[in-house]
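User: What would this chain look like folded?
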Amino acid sequence: MTKVINLRRRQGINYKPITNNNSSKKFKINNTEITKLLLVLISLLSLLVGCFIYKNSNLNVVPEMCSSFITDLQNKNFFQLFLFLVKQDLIYFIICFFVGTSIIGIPFTFIPISIKCIFIGCLSSFMYCQYSLKGILFSLVLLYPLFTITTTSLIYSANESIYMSKHIFNTMTNKNTADSISIRLYLIRYAFLVGINLVCIAVNSFLIMLLYDRLI
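Assistant: Here's the prediction, encoded as structure tokens.
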């Protein structure tokens, strides 16, 4: 997946000074990894924030929102369940996609991930408080595998949006950049990530239909 997502055309391939090029490669790799690490860190912090919000919030809207989500997973056929989960997932991708096409989009790429992980944190706390060990088992079998894959895809999407927004900013300010990117490649990467999520949601929808009543 990394090879497809990070498919970028680079200049200066024929001339490779040993010392300078190695340090340049290390610098680029470090920058990319730091960005992803920062996105992962924000995701983990947002999960903790979600748990904190659920535990300390006196408003009924948070438990009601979580209860509504779990209830919506029940008594649906495969197609209805698939569409429900797809709509929940695509909202974050759409926000992230359009943020990446903005010249000032970099600071806003963290918003979709934060919102999603805060919701996952609230939902995890709800499942434990409401269903105890059954809630933990239900989450481990049916929720966390789906959330892990879709959140990872969203992290990669945010990384691409940061790269795209940075490229647009450099282009608008006439700054030279060693990387070149096009909207076509940007669309291909997003289509690839969304495709992975659709497959994952389809499998998960089938499992929910089979196991929901047995686990809750």
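Helices lie at 2-5, 18-56, 61-72, 78-100, 110-131, 133-172, 183-215. If you want, I can go into more detail on any region.
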